[in-house]
């Protein structure tokens, strides 16, 4: 079932979450261990991230450095299928532009279609760490909007090979990312919203936001979206803060601000358990206010660790 149908059919706020494929070489059991404790909150869908190649440099015996390309977290398509079989909930694979040609993307989409997966979250992906900015694959896409157009084309039965006889159209429901604190590369929020609206106009049907810790920023973002004519559901992305080090890691990695009250409370916590409790209580309060605000779903970034998300969900659902 499509995410939009789940949202339309719901008579209360839904609970959903995102997991990462395990690092290459790890068993799928680690994925199940992250999902099992969250199933009692009845997620109608589970998102699975997609990861591009990364470059590592290995020193050879002659002292020269060799650039090696690896994908540390492959397996998104297989994990989505395993989730659907084991838990009978919809899996939402993320599909990214970075590192993939249009043909590789089409092949992945066909696999997803054959597996009965109805949803995709379409993203550009970040730049490779060793590169100064995002560089698209030479036969790939530069923006999520280009990827949306490919999926919309496929939904109309237009494959890359135009010679195909009687091609069968896919029917993917398309979600995209939005940034309450604006995307790091956008010159300002208005420009970012212009491109977000472009993604919706092209065929995206709902938005999941970057994580945020200040609800006012989310509510202002929703109002700004509505003001520029974005009418689709906007799902807030949430993450309970769990360690002191995240005070620096989260802003750096996700380009977000942490509210002063939260930072002060985390800094005052004396033990790791106390820090975790501060993070959980903060997110519970966020969730209560967001439900009041009327969000259709609360979406959690679990990073494949379920304990803190389960503690929040227990207080809300
Ligand atoms: P885009 O929509 O392409 O936007 C990127 C920048 O370009 C923005 O500044 C925007 O304003 C601008 N822009 C957009 N369209 C155009 C256009 N047509 N012309 C000119 N400028 C434009 N990353 C992963 O690698 N794997 C994942 O699984 C993953 N999942 C994510 C899930 C969520 C909910 C979120 C919020 C992020 C996720 N990311 C993931 C990170 C994401 O890939 C990065 O934030 C990336 O830098 C931007 O992706 P985007 O889809 O928002 O890009």
Quickly list its features.
methylenetetrahydrofolate reductase (NADH) activity, Methylenetetrahydrofolate reductase, 18% strand, two-stranded antiparallel ribbon, single chain, 317 residues, binds flavin-adenine dinucleotide, TIM Barrel, NAD, alpha/beta
Would you kindly provide a written description of the structure presented here, covering whatever features stand out?
The protein is an alpha/beta fold. The chain has one domain (3-316): TIM Barrel (Alpha-Beta Barrel), CATH 3.20.20. 40% of the residues lie in helices and 18% in strands. Helix 5 runs parallel beside helix 6 (189-202), helix 9 packs antiparallel against helix 10 (272-293) and helix 10 crosses helix 11. The mean pLDDT is 95. The site of flavin-adenine dinucleotide has 25 residues, from strand 5, helix 5, helix 6 and strand 8. Flavin-adenine dinucleotide is lined by residues 49-52, 94, 96, 123-126, 143-145, 177, 183, 185-186, 191-192, 195, 198-199, 208, 210, 237.
TL;DR?
Helices cover 40% and strands 18% of the residues. It has 317 residues and is of the alpha/beta class. InterPro entries: FAD-linked_oxidoreductase-like, Mehydrof_redctse-like, MTHF_reductase_bac.
């Amino acid at each position: 079932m499509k995410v939009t149908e789940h949202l339309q059919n719901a008579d209360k706020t839904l609970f959903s979450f995102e997991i990462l494929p395990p690092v290459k070489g790890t068993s799928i059991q680690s994925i199940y261990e992250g999902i099992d404790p969250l199933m009692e909150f009845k997620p109608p869908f589970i998102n699975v991230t997609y990861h591009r190649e990364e470059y590592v440099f290995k020193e050879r015996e002659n002292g020269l450095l060799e650039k090696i390309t690896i994908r540390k977290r492959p397996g998104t398509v297989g994990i989505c299928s395993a989730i659907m079989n084991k838990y009978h909930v919809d899996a939402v694979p993320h599909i990214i532009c970075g590192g993939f040609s249009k043909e590789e993307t089409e092949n992945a989409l066909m696999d997803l279609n054959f597996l009965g997966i109805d949803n995709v979250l379409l993203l550009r992906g970040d730049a490779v760490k060793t590169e100064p900015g995002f560089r698209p694959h030479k036969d790939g896409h530069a923006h999520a909007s280009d990827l949306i157009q490919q999926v919309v084309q496929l939904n109309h039965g237009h494959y890359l090979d135009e010679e195909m006889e009687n091609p069968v159209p896919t029917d993917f429901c398309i979600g995209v990312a939005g940034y309450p604190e604006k995307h790091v590369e956008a010159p300002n929020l208005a420009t970012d919203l212009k491109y977000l609206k472009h993604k919706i106009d092209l065929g995206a049907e709902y938005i999941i936001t970057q994580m945020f810790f200040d609800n006012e920023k989310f509510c202002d973002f929703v109002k700004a979206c509505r003001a520029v004519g974005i009418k689709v559901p906007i799902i807030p992305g949430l993450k309970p803060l769990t360690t002191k080090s995240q005070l620096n890691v989260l802003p750096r990695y996700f380009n977000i601000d942490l509210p002063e009250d939260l930072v002060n409370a985390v800094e005052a916590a004396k033990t790791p358990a106390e820090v975790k409790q501060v993070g959980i209580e903060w997110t519970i309060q966020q969730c209560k206010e967001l439900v009041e605000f009327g969000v259709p779903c609360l979406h959690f970034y679990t990073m494949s660790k379920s304990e803190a998300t389960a503690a929040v969900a227990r207080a809300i659902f």
